[in-house]
Design a protein that fits this description.
The structure holds two protein chains of two kinds. Chain A is of the alpha+beta class. Chain A has helices at residues 15-26, 31-34, 36-43, 95-106, 122-127, 174-183, 185-188, 196-204, 248-257, 279-284; strands spanning 6-11, 44-45, 48-55, 61-69, 77-86, 109-117, 131-134, 136-141, 166-171, 212-218, 221-233, 236-246, 269-274, 288-289, 301-302, 305-306, 313-316. Chain A is built from ten helices and 17 strands. In chain A, strands 1, 2, 3, 4, 5, 6, 7 and 17 form an eight-stranded mixed sheet that branches. In chain A, strands 9-10-11-12-13-8-14 form a seven-stranded mixed sheet. In chain A, strands 15-16 form a two-stranded antiparallel ribbon. In chain A, strand 4 and strand 5 (77-86) form a beta hairpin. The longest helix of chain A is centred in the first third of the chain and has 12 residues, at 15-26. Chain A is globular and about 65 Å long. The radius of gyration of chain B is 11 Å and the shape is globular. Chain B contains four helices and no strands. In chain B, helix 1 (3-14) crosses helix 2 (35-49). By secondary structure, chain B is an all-alpha fold. The longest helix of chain B is centred in the middle third of the chain and has 15 residues, at 35-49. Classes of the chains: A alpha+beta, B mainly alpha.
């Protein structure tokens, strides 16, 4: 059966219609439907938009698939999928799948993945041959914090055990630090691999969120960077690890030692969502797994604030497990347009 | 292969009451039956009967009966 829909890459001239589509069919007042600057920040690449579109016979948009390339100059791309929506009840029930297939067929890639897939679509991704899973949510609680406004901590908070051989230094010269990072052999081999330009754009040039970069040293040996963001609700503050830019084999140890930054701070906790971490190292170390069963609550939504745990599912075409974070793709972004630095 | 197993899979994935789905049901009869549900049903049928469908197969199926026939073809 031939489909009466056409699939193609978006052009910059499609921007207005894509934004309207997002407002009409994804979420009313979503930032990507109202904020032109943010839309460009996220999806404009050179003179194009990183979208695959499905159009009907009248050339109206009936489906969109947003994506980002971690290093657009590379021959083989690591591609992260973002917003994916097709109008319901179309005559072609697999048009959504065709958008992803179009991307697969037309951009030479090493891997395609997505962080934050809807639980309902896990079967769809499996049908397409993706591996699926859930990011594990870890948190380390500040024992000196007397009042918790954001989190519901465990009854018994851990004493942090940290090694003297580690050092975390906040850096303002992110560019210089990234120069060191991209020279690390373990980082070069990482999959997915974020290029220096992607990291600068994603975290340094973000129009609403402010990210802090911490250089990581073990015995004065540079291991990479922790990217964090402070969140607050009422009088409570917390630190979220959004990404760890380092060799995968070092990441769990880095996260475990990073709790040193909570000492003498007013923050309630540090949390991180990630895949493929060394769970036993973190649980036997300074972290707890966040779960309703353990009666530990670490919110993920801050505007509006919702004091509940949120699962983040992911999918990947890569058969090898890799460390994915909340910062991968479009997960760590505001949902509604605001005038100042947001706190979502 | 049992037709009742297939109907159970439909009811389970569409999250509808027993008796809502019958052989003649189509996506226009049941609100919960959207394109995502169609693929989830396909994946559940693959797992249940140890078969593998192609993308083209899904485009052809409209009713529960079509799904039953599709499974029968693949089981041959």
């Amino acid at each position: 059966m031939s489909s009466s829909f056409k699939v193609r890459f978006a052009r910059y001239s499609d921007k207005e219609e894509i934004m309207s589509f997002i407002g009409n069919y994804w979420a009313k007042n979503h930032i990507l439907s109202t904020d032109q600057m943010f839309f460009d920040f996220q999806y404009k690449h050179k003179d194009n938009l990183q979208f695959v579109l499905a159009l009907d016979t009248n050339n109206r948009i009936v489906g969109v698939l947003g994506y980002m390339q971690y290093d657009p100059e590379k021959i083989e791309q690591d591609i992260v999928l973002a917003l994916w929506k097709v109008i319901p009840n179309l005559s072609d029930p697999v048009l959504g799948i065709k958008l992803i297939e179009y991307l697969r067929d037309n951009i030479k890639h090493r891997c395609i993945f997505c962080v934050g897939i809807n639980k309902k679509t896990i079967g769809v991704f499996k049908f397409m041959g993706f591996q699926t899973g859930k990011l594990v949510h870890f948190a380390a609680f500040n024992k000196d914090c007397k009042t918790f406004s954001i989190a519901i901590p465990p009854l018994k908070k851990k004493f942090f055990v940290c090694s003297d051989s580690w050092n975390f230094k906040k850096t303002k010269s992110v560019e210089l630090s990234l120069e060191k990072l991209i020279k690390l052999s373990g980082y070069k081999e990482k999959k997915p691999h974020k290029s220096k330009n992607y990291i600068l754009k994603r975290y340094v040039e973000h129009p609403y969120f402010f990210y802090t970069f911490h250089e990581v040293y073990e015995k004065n040996f540079y291991l990479g960077l922790v990217v964090s963001r402070e969140v607050q609700h009422l009088s409570g503050r917390a630190i979220r690890i959004i990404d760890v830019l380092a060799e995968d084999s070092n990441i769990s140890r880095i996260i475990n030692e990073f709790v040193i930054t909570l000492k003498k701070s007013c923050h309630e906790y540090i949390d991180v969502y990630a895949s493929n971490l060394n769970e036993s190292l973190l649980i036997n170390g300074n972290y707890n797994i966040v779960s309703d069963l353990q009666k530990i609550i670490i919110p993920d939504h801050f505007s509006p604030f919702e004091q509940k745990n949120i699962d983040i599912h992911f999918c990947t075409t890569d058969n090898q497990p890799s460390c994915l974070f909340k910062g991968d793709g479009d997960q760590d972004n505001p949902r509604i347009r605001r005038e100042s630095i947001a706190n979502d | 292969m049992s037709v009742s197993t297939i109907i159970e899979i439909f009811q389970d994935i569409l999250d509808v009451k027993k008796g809502t789905v019958n052989l003649n049901s189509t996506s226009s009869d049941i609100d919960e039956w959207d394109s995502v549900a169609t693929v989830n049903i396909i994946v559940a049928l693959e797992d249940e009967f140890g078969i593998k469908f192609k993308l083209e197969d899904i485009q052809e199926v409209k009713s529960v009966k079509d799904f039953v026939e599709l499974v029968q073809e693949h089981k041959k």
